[in-house]
Design a protein that fits this description.
Order of helices and strands: EHEHHEHEHEEHEEEHEHE
Strand content: 15-25%
Structural class: alpha/beta
Helix content: 10-25%
Radius of gyration: 18 Å
Oligomer: single chain
Largest sheet: 8 strands, mixed
Number of helices: 8
Strand order of the largest sheet: 1-5-4-3-6-7-11-10
Distance between the termini: 27 Å
Shape: globular
Amino acid sequence: MREGAHPGRIAAFPAQNLSREATRAPWHPCHDTSQDTSHDTPGRVGPKSTTREPIIQEPVSAQPAPAGPEAEAEATRRAAGVTESARANRGWWDRNADEYQTEHGTFLGDDRFVWGPEGLDEVEAELLGPPEELKGKDVLEIGAGAAQCARWLAAQGARPVALDISHRQLQHALRIGSSFPLVCADAGALPFADASFDLACSAYGALPFVADPRLVLREVRRVLRPGGRLVFSVTHPIRWAFPDEPGPEGLTVSASYFDRTPYVEQDEEGLAVYVEHHRTLGDRVRDVVTSGFRLVDLIEPEWPDWNTAEWGGWSPLRGHLIPGTAIFVCERD
């Protein structure tokens, strides 16, 4: 054990003084990025230790955020490796957490478990299992944002740990309130002992933003107990062939589905300030299987009639025609 994470504070490694200041608004499971390594993997364009005291790992050398990077960012498609992706997305989510929570908090609520913009709720889906069977289970949420999903899990009697790479997102979890540990750490280097959890989940967290998703999947497998379940949702890979537009202009193919070059927003000096990676559906399945999981189910939620919201490229128009989310239900062998 390097440091304990306790309810009511954000744990970090190395230890640091962490503010609990109030933040401006609310939102959903955020996004996380992976550990620094020397790999570069192309692609394009959201627990506990053995003593119930989860430790946390904070990357030691985060890239300082350029002034006003979003205002002057240039969108491009280029290679972006594990290190660059992690630094860029850590900074992006810290800078944009307040706006993100404000914009999406009403849709996601403070204690709902929503798998994606379609609004599929774990209450109905039961992808982690029937709610009554969650009681007493140790659950790791990866890319937790303001920890709405973990809060719902705690209400079912589970023992969640909410992990996110963004300290600012976890401050929103503090603002809303949590009775479970909040861990600011890297999904590619989980600071937990082997076989610490019964379940792991991630709603648009980590995997769309890492250059090598197998780093994350192998870490999740390591901290799951034998037979443990991982459920994660990501942008449906078909989205990469279409523009990110909710209207009719978003219904015409504009790029190759097979082009895995990352989508990068970079500042005037060419430093990435946001990175998102594309994996085809086949890539995702192979990532799951080669990381030691068995794929139990693959869900492509249909857009419900009650949902009239638009969210980036997601909308009722597009949602009734093409899938926007893919949810992978996996079990550790």
